Amino acid sequence: xxxxxxxxxxxxxxxxxxxLPELLxxxxxxxxxxxxxAYSLISTLSLTRDARARAVAANLAAEEIDLAxxxxxxxxxxxxxxxxxxxxxxxxVNRTTQWVSDPGAEFTCGAGTGSGSLRYKRVNVTxxxxxxxxxxxxxxxxTILTPDDHINDPTKGTILVxxxxxxxxxxxxxxVTASPGVGSVISPTDSQGCTYILKVNxxxxxVTVQRAEHVNDAQLAAPTQSVVVAAGSTASVGFQLDEVATxxxxxxxxxxxxxxxxxxxxxxxxxxxTYGNAAVVPFGGPGGTxxxxxxxxxxxxxxxxxxxxxxxxxxAWPEDTSGPVPxxxxxxxxxxxPPGGTAAMSxxxxxxxxxxxxxxxxHATSEDPGCAVTYSFGEVLTGSGVSIALPYGSWRLQQSSxxxxxxxxxxxxxxxxxxxxxxxxxTVAGSVVTLDPRTAxxx
Length: 443
Prior knowledge:
Protein name: Prepilin-type N-terminal cleavage/methylation domain-containing protein
Organism: Cellulomonas wangleii
InterPro entries: Carb-bd-like_fold (IPR013784), N_methyl_site (IPR012902)
Keywords: Membrane, Transmembrane, Transmembrane helix
Oligomer: single chain
Structural class: mainly beta
């Protein structure tokens, strides 16, 4: 019987050599070994690079903390992000800061209501780098900084003012004043929308913020808030102020050419949104059927209606029926514009035509309960008459011989309802015209 040794010796002495199966097996084994070796080398290189990048990032974070500790003015040290290139890698250094008033409360610059005293400023630094592996945390370093000098003495207080844009970010460069005067210069808001009124005598102050072409969420250009300052503590006030959005409104769309709107300075358009209603005078004053409004740029937009009386709002009219079909008053779809941007919108109104019949000056007085509003259209009752646009509701039309003369009722024969009527359910009873905004809602 041949042993394995004899078989091996015979194979060595033969001329056949290694067959194709043996070659394929050898190549497969070599490929497996090479793949494992390459993966190990790549993993080692990746871990080595990551460790080196993390060491550099940790040094950058520590360096940023050292720079913060050397800051001469803690109020001037704000959030900042910068990029550093080292050893062919890009590092992003992000610094965030927060004032802390007591161990259980923290805030960026006093937004909302708060009390206590400013104790220290917390600084957080994170550093990330390009090519970070999934699941790897950035390098981080934190510290707290205490001012070298006392921010306040025990007999005085601090007012922290926060001014935010509509998107919640800080509004920089906003002028801040306090009344009565605090005896020191108040800096405009910084990039976080913050400013600090230091060493304020105890008492009640009115804080006002203002910036050109900016309005707050109540459409005020110079909003104010009252704040009470106590000795040795901090009071805070917050504002929402942003650059105006410009809305070009087509009043009474579809009205005949030459239709007049009230020229009275008390004529306003009400803009509604999820935050409430705001009655606004058009930019440049009342005029024709194209008017401009500058409003706070709410992202949800505005749904407008002309006038300020309760029944000027179509939603205030109770649901009615026309046979089986319900009649409902609805607002136009909301229209939004970004800060500094523009948008177009339509403001529906009722339209009637008034012909001359004595006086030349035309007036409209609301007949709606609880609404004591009178609009003037000027000296328009000449020639063949004039088409006028009015907010929804009931209006008594009157005429006079001068702007301040005695008013007399216009007769029903002088009031012409256009065909088709705008709105559809317009009625005339004597000198009173009722503009009903309800329309059929089909199932």
